Amino acid sequence: MSVRRLADEALQPAGFSFNKENQVWAKKIIAQYPEGRQQSAVIPLLMRAQEQDGWVTRAAIEYVADLLSMAYIRVMEVATFYTQFQLKPVGTKAHIQVCGTTPCMLRGAGDLIEVCQKKIHHDPHHTNRDGTLSWEEVECLGACVNAPMVMIFKDTYEDLTPERLAEIIDQFEKGEGDSVPVGPQNSRKTSEPITGLTSLINDHAHDVSKVKSSSKSAQREKKASPTDEASKDKTTLVGSPAIKKPDEKRASNKDTKKK
């Protein structure tokens, strides 16, 4: 576990506050938690602070702490524990997280890292000259089937080649990041086999699956609908014989003996 500290004081802004839109959003999020449990909103509030400024500053930590009536150290513990929180300035237009876990590395993540080193900065967690781009290597981002891949802010870009990543970086630097399609960057749809579908590949197969689905839905509705008591089948659990009624003769004999 690496030690994570806040950025140098020289980089820290004098203050922080949510903009009007985020203030409204924060009130809604805090209101979702029961009375006395509002501190559970600390992670989403820190994430929103990061989205607003690009990174988590000391002032943002203190602001969130005041909103939730928490000690500053408690919020700082959260911010420094989770690596999803950037504690130093990142690129204003794109911060690229390259997955370096085994599946991605075997599929060419090393080449993607070289692209970032050439186009942004040789070392991770450093911005380019204009301060618009930065990058880092991270652990698994959960899209192993579509390796190699990167995450830029909240979006993933998968099935990458070095050439395609270079194009994406250029588009973000131009301010055209919104035009880049998220997900697979080849002809693959979501996480289907790279060679294409091997089942349910014709219209008939899709029709059959729809029929089966509708049939199951009808069965569920039938079970859920109320029925008359007389129409219900009598059920007996296997291995659980019905409880026998007490023998009237034996019961009367016992009463006679007691007398």
TrEMBL record:
Transmembrane segments: none
Ranges annotated as biased composition (Basic and acidic residues): 218-235, 244-259
One Gene Ontology biological process: inorganic cation transmembrane transport
UniProt remark on cofactor binding: Binds 1 [2Fe-2S] cluster.
InterPro entries: NuoE-like, NuoE_dom, NuoE_N, Thioredoxin-like_sf
Residue ranges of the region described as Disordered: 198-259
CDD domains associated with the record: TRX_Fd_NuoE
Catalytic activity: a quinone + NADH + 5 H(+)(in) = a quinol + NAD(+) + 4 H(+)(out)
Signal peptide: none
Keyword check for Membrane: no
GO MF assignments: 2 iron, 2 sulfur cluster binding; active transmembrane transporter activity; inorganic cation transmembrane transporter activity; metal ion binding; monoatomic cation transmembrane transporter activity; NADH dehydrogenase activity
Binding locations of [2Fe-2S] cluster: 99, 104, 140, 144
Keyword annotations of the record: 2Fe-2S, Iron, Iron-sulfur, Metal-binding, NAD, Translocase
GO cellular component: catalytic complex; membrane protein complex; organelle envelope; organelle membrane
Pfam families recorded: 2Fe-2S_thioredx
Coiled-coil intervals, chain numbering: none
Needed cofactors: [2Fe-2S] cluster
NCBIfam families reported in the protein's UniProt record: nuoE_fam, PRK07539.1-4
Family: Belongs to the complex I 24 kDa subunit family.
Name recorded for this polypeptide: NADH-quinone oxidoreductase, E subunit
Organism listed in the record: Bartonella tamiae Th239
Source taxonomy: Bacteria, Pseudomonadati, Pseudomonadota, Alphaproteobacteria, Hyphomicrobiales
